[in-house]
Amino acid sequence: xxxxxxxxxxxxxxxxxxxxxxxxxxxxxxxxxxxxxxxxxxxxxxxxxxxxxxxxxxxxxxxxxxxxxxxxxxxx
Length: 76
Description:
Blueprint: E1 4-10, H1 13-25, E2 31-34, H2 36-41, E3 51-56, H3 60-69
Antiparallel strand pairs: 1-3, 2-3
């Protein structure tokens, strides 16, 4: 299995679903990863509520291009 790299930090579940869906629509696998403490406490905002969007390392450039096309800054 290929290593994943975070390409975007979403502020909430709606944003994560939207961006990850757009990435997947382009044929790029996208995984949502949430801080375990934030998830268990049901936090939906702030540092513990953020959701990392990760893609395979070989597809990072493609995923960042999708994100840039939406006028949302990619993670560096």
